[in-house]
Amino acid sequence: MFHRRVSPLRMLLAFAVAVAAPALAVQRTFVASTGVDTNPCTLTQPCRGFAAAVSAVAAKGEVVVLDSAGYGPVTLDKSVSILAPKGIYAGVSVTTGSGITIAAGGSRVTLRGLTINGQGGNVGVEVVSASVLELYDVEVSGLNSTGILAGNGGMILGEGLIVRESGSEGILLAGGARMHLRNSRVENNQRGVKEQEGAWFSAVDSTFIGNYYEAILIFAGANQTAVLNLEHCYVAENGHSFAAIKTSTSDATARIDGTLTRNTITLNSGYGVIVGDPFDGEGHYTVNFVDNTITNNSAIGILIQVPQFDTTLGKIVLSGNTISRNDWGVGCNGAGVVTRGNNTIRDNVSNQLTCAGIVSETGQ
270: which of 100, 172, 202, 242 fits an S-S bond (Cβ 3.0–4.6 Å)? Predict the structure, then answer.
């Protein structure tokens, strides 16, 4: 039988190519407490940390946590999901800088079931760039500065999210970032949520409790529109002699667009809600208060202080609210409000309603 002889040089070249060829990224990788980062991150040979598993996974792939452990900080530079099943603790200890950095460009990132714990670090989740970030059953706590920081657009969706005990803001949104929460908690931070530079924030069925300063602070700068939508939320024991919810603008080109519906705003140590600031610019405010319960706040339930208020530029509308047992009910400073005539404003300690130029729109 004839055998073709293979030259030693050809054999050497083939071996070199085989060694140099990188492993192909796979659709799913795994991490475990017994894993090793030099493993291929498979189910039977898992990696030890998130960074190795993310490096080995393909874009739009998944990193799956197999058992309870800490898995370390990571930067996500592509579309990827990190998933910890219910009953498994998947921790990220943040000893310095940021715990999880999202720098995924226009991609989608999903985090599920993670616990991000500050141990001297500044930021829990930092969104540098992403089209969509989904946070499901994620807890972020104890950061020196900010729990979740997003400053460059993109949309963040949170459900079952807990952000607590941040040294500054629990959540800081800027640069047009948009965040939507459901069934979430923002508690015991220095400030709960701060929204600036044209950011948007909405929350449904969520709790804001025990934040030292504002639970929610909204600011719109020049030529910016800041949006706030709250529905069926519980806002309590915030404000430390100031306000649980506050909105303000920089100048007449700025705009606040807000809707507060069926919320309970109670037991805050300052004002319930402040709309506007006479020391800031007089921007445009369109804020609707519908069917809220605002009670037992130490100062005024709703304080409206929009200088030179003009209902052609915006309206503060009160409809179906119960405002009682505050120091004052509704106060206005150089402003007017529109009422649908169906609010219950009573049993406040000092005054019920002190607004000049109030406009009634009953029947609408």
Answer: 242
